[in-house]
Amino acid sequence: MTHESRTLVVGAAVVRHGLVLAARRRRPAGFWEFPGGKCEPGEEAVAALHRELAEELGLSVELGCEVVPDDGGTWPISAELHLRVWLARPLGVPSPGPDHDQLRWLRPADLGSVQWLPADVPIAARIADLLEDR
């Protein structure tokens, strides 16, 4: 499957006062993620991220830099899905919507304390490294 034929998923590492937002999914139950979702056909990645955060958390954000893997590409989720993630500053207070049952603000050093979706594990590690360097 080519990169272009895979569906793009977008996510945000929302950072407030040095803490990172983790959202616990209802399904699969108990797994944590960086909030976001799939791009609609023809939708630009940044527009999709803003839409998804508004839908999922009632949240507007100011985007910062993109968090990229070592190869400079996208983060793999599966053969059908790949992920792009940005650091973001919240412009308001998030609240869990229909996809999440809990939100938690974590120190970068504590990002490993929750059970992330498998695709988000290396992203959490990268974000911890980025934020601890600041």
Describe this structure in words.
The chain is of the alpha+beta class and 134 residues long. It has a single domain (3-132), classed as Nucleoside Triphosphate Pyrophosphohydrolase. Helices cover 19% and strands 36% of the residues. Strand 6 and strand 7 form a beta hairpin. It is globular, with a radius of gyration of 14 Å.
Please give a handful of descriptors for the protein shown.
134 residues, alpha+beta, Nucleoside Triphosphate Pyrophosphohydrolase, 2 helices
| Outline type | globular
User: CATH superfamily name?
Assistant: Nucleoside Triphosphate Pyrophosphohydrolase
DSSP strand tally: 8
Give the N-terminus to C-terminus distance in angstroms.
38 Å
Biggest sheet features? 8 strands, mixed
> What is the CATH C-level name?
Alpha Beta
Write a compact overview of the structure shown.
The protein has helices at residues 45-57, 121-132, and strands at 7-16, 19-25, 32-33, 36-38, 61-67, 75-76, 81-90, 100-106.
What's the topology here?
Blueprint lengths: L6 E10 L2 E7 L6 E2 L2 E3 L6 H13 L3 E7 L7 E2 L4 E10 L9 E7 L14 H12 L2
Parallel strand pairs: 1-7
Antiparallel strand pairs: 1-2, 1-4, 2-3, 2-8, 5-7, 6-7
